[in-house]
UniProtKB/TrEMBL annotation:
Reaction catalysed by this enzyme: N-acetyl-beta-D-6-sulfogalactosaminyl-(1->4)-alpha-L-iduronyl-(1->3)-N-acetyl-D-6-sulfogalactosamine + H2O = alpha-L-iduronyl-(1->3)-N-acetyl-D-6-sulfogalactosamine + N-acetyl-D-6-sulfogalactosamine; Hydrolysis of terminal non-reducing N-acetyl-D-hexosamine residues in N-acetyl-beta-D-hexosaminides; a ganglioside GM2 (d18:1(4E)) + H2O = a ganglioside GM3 (d18:1(4E)) + N-acetyl-beta-D-galactosamine; beta-D-GalNAc-(1->4)-alpha-L-IdoA-(1->3)-beta-D-GalNAc-4-sulfate-(1->4)-alpha-L-IdoA-(1->3)-D-GalNAc-4-sulfate + H2O = alpha-L-IdoA-(1->3)-beta-D-GalNAc-4-sulfate-(1->4)-alpha-L-IdoA-(1->3)-D-GalNAc-4-sulfate + N-acetyl-D-galactosamine
Active site: E341
The protein, known as: Beta-hexosaminidase
Protein's organism: Pygocentrus nattereri (Red-bellied piranha)
Domain of life: Eukaryota
Amino acid sequence: MAALRLLSVWTLLLTVTVCDGWLFDGFAARRHSESDEVALWPLPQKFQTSVDAFRLSSASFQIVHAKESTAGPSCSLLQNAFRRYYSYIFGNGRKHGKNLENVFDADLAELQVQITSADPECDGYPSLKSDESYQLEVNQPTAVLKAASVWGALRGLETFSQLVYEDDYGGQNINKTSISDFPRFAHRGILLDSSRHYLPLKVILANLEAMAMNKFNVFHWHIVDDQSFPFQSRTFPDLSHKGAYHPYTHVYTPADVKMVIEFARMRGIRVLAEFDSPGHTFSWGKGQTGLLTPCFSGSSPSGTFGPVNPILNSTYDFMTRFFKEVSTVFPDAYIHLGGDEVDFSCWKSNPDIQKFMDQQGFGQDYRKLESYYIQRLLDIVSTTNKGYMVWQEVFDNGVKLKADTQIHVWKEKPPYQDEMARITAAGFQTLLSSPWYLNRISYGQDWLGIYKADPQNFNGTAEQKKLVIGGEACLWGEYVDATNLTPRLWPRASAVGERLWSDENVKDVGSAYDRLVKHRCRMVRRGIPAEPLYIGFCPHEYSGN
Ligand SMILES: *[C@@H]1O[C@H](CO)[C@@H](O)[C@H](O)[C@H]1NC(C)=O
Ligand SMILES: *[C@@H]1O[C@H](CO)[C@@H](O)[C@H](O)[C@H]1NC(C)=O
Ligand SMILES: *[C@@H]1O[C@H](CO)[C@@H](O)[C@H](O)[C@H]1NC(C)=O
């Protein structure tokens, strides 16, 4: 009925526009691209859509709690999301088309959101075990979104907003649709590096927003590194006071960190903090005298410093107090402890380290010294009741790891497929980043290679494949700051987003290209300056607001 009505409206319009002549003065392409099919990204697991179209009126359409829902107006996470998605759908202060208002009798009055489990988790934090599945039925007179918890509702709201399309007259429409959706992997992350360049809060928050648009659920915050220490510690204020690029303007205060965590939580995103050691710690040494290994030139100190000094008790005393604080600041159940790229040359130069190596019977194997350090660090972090994640070297070097350790694969050689096979054969959970170093750029459509990589593409048993928890797109910060971060990351990271959310058989790059072009325009329209995939245009160009 609705479809028929719509068809006649279309015929009428077409006649009118051809008579007016403006269909031919360059508007044709615009017409086509605006009223084309909706572009869902990432593609839901199961969905059915039809040509029955309903109109959404910005004056009367509402997103509301279903009567049966276990969550209500006191659930600020959902209240907030309802407002956010209403404004994504109708824009900020944009008028909806008036001309056709009365010819649509098929209005969609509201979207009812129903949380079904006894605990909707309104005030909780998302975790690796969160249920993000949802069901969405768009039909007259109401659409219904069902999810066990708020986490699934957030994903479903995003999908609902993506189903809405604008007709040529500025009206918002949605077709009759049925969707049942859930993520393929539980860990879908983005790594941002706030050490090589300080990232203003505004940029971090904008990217959390973009992550939610792509159904990512982990913000891996590589917060400190050699170059700077912007994390403000209450226990050791000198770390940022002396180790940040600037002690007041280039730091994340406890209030800043809290804001990032809450903003992320409202979007179903975990904040996984990384404090990488014993390498990548040069900036730590500025505010914590005695923490780093003094390097020697011949028989005297050269005045430079290497990795964390693994032979001093003071090192472990410091780490105990520091990680005690970190574990209370970041509510996530996991901490990323790094452990990558330890340069042994400074340790080799230092006579005290030599003596310690002899005492311990390590010979000249510095990997054993590294393992000694990591082992003690892991024991310390274990006492905070956090799980930990480490870069692959920690596994490669044979450090004894707790069974629930998650191992992060980043190297390209040996091939990551072999590494994933080895890690899972040893029974550990793993996640992949090797093919997703988005800081590496090249001319052309490099999203294709990003899109084709698959974390379960290695030789292993079904049991092994189950140990793959997902992956992360990494944007290392050597050549990235607030000026170029967002366009460099999006929509290239969207390719990772679909790989980690959608069914493994969603691989058609032609369909992906068409949808991604539109999804990118949608991000642009929502204020995310995502770069173009190729030649073309968006119906609404970026206004740089
Ligand atoms: C939605 O309905 C319109 C109008 O009937 C139709 O042109 C369009 O192809 C439909 N979109 C989808 C995705 O089915
Ligand atoms: C370091 O700690 C160990 C174990 O707690 C202890 O045996 C050793 O004497 C300490 N060393 C120093 C120099 O205090
Ligand atoms: C799996 O093993 C086969 C046979 O050894 C090999 O040809 C293939 O390249 C391997 N696949 C991957 C993804 O490593």
